[in-house]
Amino acid sequence: MNKSEISGLKALYSRELFESVVPFWEKHSPDRELGGYFSCLDRDGTVFDKDKFLWMQGRELWGFAHLYRTVRPEPRWLELAKLGADFIREKGRAPNGDFWFAVDRAGKPLVQPYNIYADCFCAAGLAEYGRVSGEAWAADLAVSTWRRIQERKANPKGVWTKQIGANRPVLAMSFPMMQVWMAGVFDGLVPREELDAPIDAALEQVLTLHLDRERKALFERVYADGTRPDCMEGRLLTPGHALETLWFIMSEAERRDAASRDPRNREIIETARDAMLWTVERAWDEKYGGIFYYMDYEGFPTEKVESKMKLWWVHAEALCAFLLAYRLTGDPACEAWFKRIQEWTWSRFPDPEYGEWYGYLERTGEVAHTLKGGKWKGFFHIPRALQTCVEWLDDMEGRCGSDGVYRAPGA
After folding, report:
1. CA 253 to CA 259: how far, in whole Å?
2. Close Cβ partners of 45 (under 8 Å, ≥ 6 residues apart)
3. Confidence of residue 368 (pLDDT cuts 50, 70, 90)
4. Measured distance CA(103)–CA(233) in Å, rounded
5. Maximum Cα–Cα distance for the chain, whole Å?
6. What is the CA radius of gyration of the chain?
7. pTM to 2 decimals?
8. What is the rounded CA–CA span in Å between residue 26 and residue 64?
């Protein structure tokens, strides 16, 4: 890329974040009467369900607090963060300290605390809020929740587990992905040695068990020896999770490389880059464009009826993945994929009339559902991706040579 391209992309992503996405959630999501946030929002922001899902409460809290800390200390962002933090503090936890999955508008529990990701995102949100607000209770609760998550991770659902794990003891890729991201959130709040061990374990699991170099695939579920069950579960590929996990790993390797010039960090960056390319080359829909949601490695049908749909978060994370890969390696294949995904995504997901992005597209790219938020989509993937890309593009803009061309460090 040249400096003009980079500057144009930075301006585009910044406008989308601050003139479309953030204002949509600022206007429609806060529940100023009873606290917390509404996440079930139709195309124009109409609230179509007032139940509150704790992982969405935590994500939105993290989002507003993170904007306050990293963009500018905008008072309304701190006020919106407080709205979520106080609701989580007062209504979010079961008697044992774990977080409910869902409560009604007033905070009456609806779904048991079976989902450890509710705890993960509430912990992340409280950690960020504790930093910006100076509220000791928020940081303390965040850290204690982080430690409770480490205790629970071997059996995260506890009594709520449906599967008979002893008969098919698979490892899922989603939790190591979460560990790497959360370690970044908690850096400075938790002693480094408490963070390094989970990160090391996550990198080991993903890069030696889930990543199959011979088959050029990153499998969602594997056994502890790296083999896979001979069933749909064992053949499952989730391109969005793969790309999100890989850019987290690449970002962590960059952080480590800055602290210690260990050649293994560059090896990890290059391995992640290769795996990103394998993933998108398999998952790109050559007929209609875009990235499939789920795939079966052998080409059989998956159990997921939405497999061929095109989802917001998959494309948001793909943009992060290939921009970071290009920024760190200068690989022209990564640049080409970033531009290809950028063009497809920008021409279909954003809604210029009402703001924000559609979440669910048909395989053809047509809008499947008008919602802008729900039980699974909230104020998280899109704003995080846009802000992250703006930060990387700003760094790249400053590194362009006298000829105006960007060259990756060491290239």
Report:
1. 10
2. 24, 27, 28, 354, 372
3. very high
4. 31
5. 62
6. 21
7. 0.97
8. 9
3-state secondary structure of 103: strand
Structure tokens at 377: 């989509």
| Kind of pairing between the strands at 52-53 and 236-237 | unpaired
- CA dist 320 and 68 (Å) reads 21
Judged against a pLDDT cut of 90, whether residue 262 lies above it is answered with no
Q: How many CB atoms lie within 10 A of CB 308?
A: 17
Supply angle C-alpha 95, 162, 307, rounded to 5. 115
**Sheet containing 102-103, strands listed edge to edge, beginning at the edge strand earlier in sequence:** 52-53, 102-103, 109-111
Q: Which residue has tokens 């009604």?
A: 104
Q: What is the DSSP string of 192-227?
A: HHHHHHHHHHHHHHIIIIIEETTTTEE-SEE-TTS-
DSSP states of 55-102 as a string? Answer: HHHHHHHHHHHHHHHHT---HHHHHHHHHHHHHHHHHSB-TTSPBPSE
CA distance 114 to 290: 33
* Type and span of the H or E element at 119: helix 116-133
Alpha helices in 223-377 (DSSP H): 232-235, 239-259, 263-283, 312-329, 332-346
299, 358 Cβ separation under 8 angstroms: no
Burial of 258 (0-12, 13-18, 19+ CB in 10 A): exposed
Contact yes or no for 217/194 (Cβ under 8 A): no
What are the contacts of 224-228 at 24+ separation with CB within 8 A?
Answer: 224/169, 224/171
Query: What are the tens digits of pLDDT across the range 159-211?
Result: 999 888 889 999 999 999 999 999 999 999 999 999 999 999 999 999 999 99
Residues 6+ apart with CB under 8 A from 274: none
CA separation for the pair 384, 378 (Å, rounded) = 11
Contact indicator for 199, 206 with CB cutoff of 8 Å:
no
What is the tens place of the pLDDT at every residue in 214-230?
Answer: 999 999 999 999 999 99
Contacts 24+ apart (CB under 8 A), 393-397: 393/6, 393/7, 393/9, 393/10, 393/13, 393/323, 394/10, 395/327, 396/1, 396/6, 396/327, 397/3, 397/6, 397/7, 397/10
Q: How far apart are CA 219 and CA 345, in angstroms?
A: 25
Sequence-ordered strand ranges (E) for 107-189: 109-111, 171-172
Q: What residue type is 229 in one-letter code?
A: P
Distance CA 242, CA 170 (A): 17
- DSSP per residue, 171-184: EESHHHHHHHHHHH
